[in-house]
Amino acid sequence: MFLPHSRSAPYNCLIVSLSLSDIPRIISDYTTAAENAKQAGFDGVEIHAANGYLIDQFLRDGTNQRNDEYGGPIENRARFLLEVTEAVVKVWGSERVGLRLSPLNPFNDIKDSDPQATFYYAVNALNLFNLAYLHVTEMGAEAPGLGGPIFNVKELRDICQGIYITNGGYDKTKANTVLEKNEADAVAFGVPYLANPDLASRFHKDAKLNIPNEKTFYVGEEKGYTDYPTMSPR
User: Average model confidence (pLDDT) for the chain?
Assistant: First the structure.
């Protein structure tokens, strides 16, 4: 939810662990969301299992303090991820479902004692679904230790049996290098696209990029959203 500069969204709630009866309901919500996307005419969906949100909170032992079948060893902590994936695949078919992970990203103060083991297991388990792609951000590698012990996230490329998309701090030159080394099948861009709605064309023409205004990233007005200029026609 985006709000104008002068307003804020209060978080007047107590944080509690989900009850076992809550979990099937939330998985059902993922099913509903997938069905809604299909009815709206989308070509597919990406499951957001990254950046400190709910699925990521289940995966990481720094946030998952449960002592039931959804907590403790990684086989349990990954259960929610796999059940959500199964539910969404039932709606779309595996060829229309991608999934995003962020092994080292400390966003929302999330961390893991052994992210290498956690995400090795997760990617191996996700291989069974034959998803359209796996989208893995390398964010967090630039701040070693904040999200847990550092490891080379690119190692997940060798475990993934399908299309592998990398992301995080790339420019055109770095992206081409990764592709040439076969360290990924594709590179995703986020921040550069915020400031350059015609980013692909700019890359193609080696054109100068607009500089993103970070002060506008998480606000809800048009500034920083619809006011970046596109290239002049040549």
Answer: 90
pLDDT-derived band of residue 108, with 50, 70 and 90 as boundaries?
Answer: confident
Give the 3-state secondary structure of residue 100: strand
Q: Are 105 and 140 in contact (CB under 8 A)?
A: yes
Q: What totals of helices (H) and strands (E) does the chain contain, helices first?
A: 9, 5
**Coil vs helix vs strand at 54:** helix
Question: What's the start-to-end Cα distance of the chain, in Å?
Answer: 38
Longest CA–CA span in the chain (Å) reads 62
The position carrying tokens 């995703």 is 188
> Which residue type is seen at 230?
T
How many other CB atoms are found less than 10 A from the CB of residue 157? Answer: 20
In the chain, what are the domains? Answer: 42-188 (3.20.20.70), 191-229 (no CATH)
**Dihedral sign computed on CA atoms, order 182, 183, 187, 188:** positive
202-206 long-range CB contacts below 8 Å, 24 or more apart?
202/231, 203/172, 205/231, 205/234, 206/172
Options 11, 30, 53, 193, the catalytic residue = 53
170 is catalytic: no
Say how many C-beta atoms besides its own lie within 10 A of residue 140's C-beta. Answer: 24
CA angle 51, 15, 19 (to 5 degrees): 95
- Give the position of tokens 């998952």: 64
Phi-psi region of 145 (alpha: psi -120 to 50; beta: other; left: phi over 0): left
Higher pLDDT, 214 or 148: 214
